[in-house]
Amino acid sequence: MTFTEPAVLWALPLGLLPLLLHLLSRRRAALREFSDLTLLRRVQAQALPRARLRQWLLAAARGAVIGLLVAAYAGPVLSSPGGGQDGAALGEGLDLVLLMDRSASMGLVERGRARWSAARDAAGELLRSLRPADRVACADFTDRLEPAAEGLGWTTPRACLDLISRAAPLSRGTDYGPPLRAAYALLAGSARDKAVVLLSDGAAHGARAEVPTPEPGTGLYCLAWPPPPPNAAVLAAGPDRAATADKPVLRSVLWSSARQDSSWDLWEGGARLGGSPVSLAARAETVSSLPLPSRPQGRTPSWSGRAESRPDALRLDDALFYSFELPRRPRLLVLYGDPAFLRSPRAGSFLQDLFSGPGRRLLDWDADSASADRLGTAGARLADYDAVALADCAPVGPAAAASLELFVRAGGGLWLFPPGRGDARGCLSLGRWLPVSVSAADEPETARGLRVEAGGPFAAWQEFELDKVALTRRLDLSRPRAGRSGCAPRREPPCWPRPATAPAAWPSGGPGSTRSPATSRSSRPSRRWSPPPSRCCASRAAGRRSSRSRRESPSSGPGPPGSPPRRACACAPPRAG
Amino acid sequence: MRYLDPVALAKLRNLSLDLRRVAAEGHLTGRHRSSARGLSHEFAEHRAYVPGDEMKALDWKVFARQERFYVRQYQSENILTGTVLLDASGSMAYAAGGRPAKWETACRLAMASAYLILAEGDAVGLATFDAQPREFLTPRASFGQLGVLDSLLERSRPGGETDLSAALEGAASRIRRRSLVVLISDLLGDPEAVLGTVKALQARRHELMVLQVLDPAERDFGFDGPTLFRCLEDRRELFCDASALQEAYRRAFQRQQRLYEAGCHGSSISFTSLFTDRPWEEGLARFLGGRRT
Hints:
- The complex is a heterodimer of chains A (577) and B (293).
- By secondary structure, chain A is an alpha/beta fold.
- Chain A has four domains: 1-25 and 51-77, no CATH class; 87-222, Rossmann fold (3-Layer(aba) Sandwich); 232-325, Immunoglobulin-like (Sandwich), CATH 2.60.40.1710; 331-551, no CATH class.
- Chain A has helices spanning 17-25, 38-73, 115-128, 157-166, 177-187, 339-343, 348-356, 398-409, 425-428, 547-551; strands spanning 2-3, 30-34, 76-77, 94-101, 109-110, 113-114, 135-141, 145-146, 193-199, 218-222, 232-239, 249-256, 260-268, 271-280, 285-291, 302-309, 319-325, 331-336, 366-371, 387-390, 413-416, 437-442, 448-449, 470-471, 474-478.
- In chain A, strand 7 and strand 8 (145-146) form a beta hairpin.
- Chain A starts with a strand and ends in a 26-residue tail after the last helix.
- The relative contact order of chain A is 0.07.
- Chain B folds into two domains: 6-25 and 80-292, von Willebrand factor, type A domain (Rossmann fold, 3-Layer(aba) Sandwich); 32-78, no CATH class.
- Chain B starts with 5 loop residues before the first helix and ends with a helix.
- In chain B, the strands form three sheets. In chain B, strands 6-5-4-7-8-11 form a six-stranded mixed beta sheet, with helices on both faces. A three-stranded antiparallel beta sheet of chain B has the order 1-3-2. A two-stranded antiparallel sheet of chain B has the order 9-10.
- Chain B has nine helices and eleven strands.
- The A-B interface holds A 25-26, 28-44, 46-47, 51, 54-55 and B 90-94, 102, 162, 186, 188-190, 215, 218, 223, 225-233, 236, 238-241, 244-245, 248-249, 252-253, 256.
């Protein structure tokens, strides 16, 4: 037997409390005078053995009750033969993998009961029907598999019940690929009966990974649901592209599973600013706009509130909060492949501070982070951004690469940050349409650091402790051969704002090569770091963009005040981890 | 008087001791029939004439009917000597629940018994005891004896242990004539020994009345939880779980009471139990009324 909360077992000595109280009771017994104790002594002498036995039994029973209560709170788990042991030694039985869908659609309420609740009850019945020889593994998933780090493993029905009872639907999409793949991997090699039970509503919103087919001999079971009622959702809410500080307009993107007439309202604080009826098409986005109240002159005007559609069976997606300023700041989407990259203080966190730190920021941009596999979902809609940064240059799938190409060709900016470890193969998949080719990394034997000159335009970088940056690798970029696609601008824009003086330089006198961190093969190595001369696609100008500007390539030189500067393409970030 | 106030006297006026079987051997003339034959106003029986009988004792009416000589014999009235044996051991000081102490009720019963005996024209005395006889008041047939009794009782305080057998033996040794003995005690001790002594007293041809005075707590044992009991007589302590022993104690007490009742009834000893939660005169009236029927 094991316990889910073994620390509670430290309270077991409380079972001795009744005995202690019994022993102490004599001290605190009430003193009473009685006329004659002859009869009482005779009675006690006759009843004493039985009374003592009863007292000891009572004390023991009370102690046992306390001990059992403590043990119950500790969460005992009877280790069944199937829990976590090698199935080969178990003989006949069932290997069951239970996958719980926690996507937003599972919060749909039908006949007064959420789908999640029905799925949880079904899972509970299934788990309670297992026999001791059966094995079970469970996990929940949305657009990713949880737990992703530890992987899927055999556990006990009680642990599964605890996991299911604690979970609840999240505001995420659905991707069946990773959980099914993990389930089949776990069941591979098992010679017993195998089954995968998918407790999901089958909503295919955002599924990107290929759904693997089950192996022969593995049963895949799903739940049957009645046809859901029509559901409308607010996918996006933000400033209209034509919105200005004088005429603010909120643009809302709605979606519906079926054709229906609905409405949506605009709320700010607790006040309703307005509403608009809208006719929603089936399984298509519908855009609607509402004017926002203007702000008085002064600091940068800002708006925040929520766009809320008419409540329906699924409430999770009926409201979306917005917060923006006008003129709006450019938005950057940082895509990462490995979640660990984002958490690394020298990698993802560094980038977040650069672009959207709470204090002083290098760029006055709004930066969002998302996993690369979510590219194209509601949480990572490229159309809402001005530039995309591939943070660790993880391998990008064909669909994502195609999305990026469309984005870039439409004028969006693309930044590449090679990973701290490994090579830059992830960038290779983009080479078809990038203006440069990314070669393998070059790692000098001795790491070099950056020296930031005082008073230079990059003095603001000092708070990011660039002097502690260790440049240990560089990527060679080569200009593609003629004829290759690429967003070749008509005019060569500067990649960085031209500084008055030279920016950061390599440490002089350092051992080894003094090659710059990111230079093309054609450039001569110099002791001073200078922006790479390779061409790149300029990012979209922030704010005003017309369809005409979407077709033209951006002009050279700095843009209008408030617009983002033109950006370079690739530079080596500090080493991750 | 402390233990016999006018209210109590008023209640006692309707009561009387009806001693049917007591054949007093007093030397004074009282209201009780003596076992001896003597001159009195009450006819007893006829006896055949033998030479030497007085002529005035002949019953001429019988001679006229039967032409035989018979002598009339009359009952001789003597004074009964009553002795109140009062238990003054420590257990008599017990009081619980705001009720009067058993000693208080016992003293009132002793005074009431003494009054009733004196009202019959008999003599009454008092003997107190605990483990040994304490004080003894010689029986007198004067109502002034009540004051003496009251003063003695007022001075006495219950205390010490109880040895009913020894005390009764000592008291019995001082009662020479056949008397009415009113034993007032809680009889908390060895029932067999007490009954043996009481029966021994009766074997000496004394008329016995046993008035057992108890507190309801001694009957009900309504105590709860772990309790340390301290005896009022020997100051010894006893720890027990009163809740656990409650039922057993009650059963043992009832058994003891039945033993006393059966033992006294079998020996024609008048016995009653009086509890301090009821007025003592009610119990006494009920007891005396029951004796009459």
